[in-house]
UniProtKB/TrEMBL annotation:
The keyword Membrane applies. This is FeoB-associated Cys-rich membrane protein. It comes from Mucilaginibacter jinjuensis. The keyword Transmembrane helix applies. The chain crosses the membrane at residues 6-23. Keywords: Membrane, Transmembrane, Transmembrane helix. It comes from the Bacteria.
Amino acid sequence: MVQSIIIALLFASALFYVGRLIYRSFTAKKGCGSNCKCGVDFSNIKPE
């Protein structure tokens, strides 16, 4: 009985981990962290 509970808890935690990975891969990120300037607003800059 105890072994079944341990297996069920391990299986549930693995499902939670995989679900969290999938959810985080589809949600939008706040910024990329590289130097691509994808989050910079260029609307106030006048072209030369």
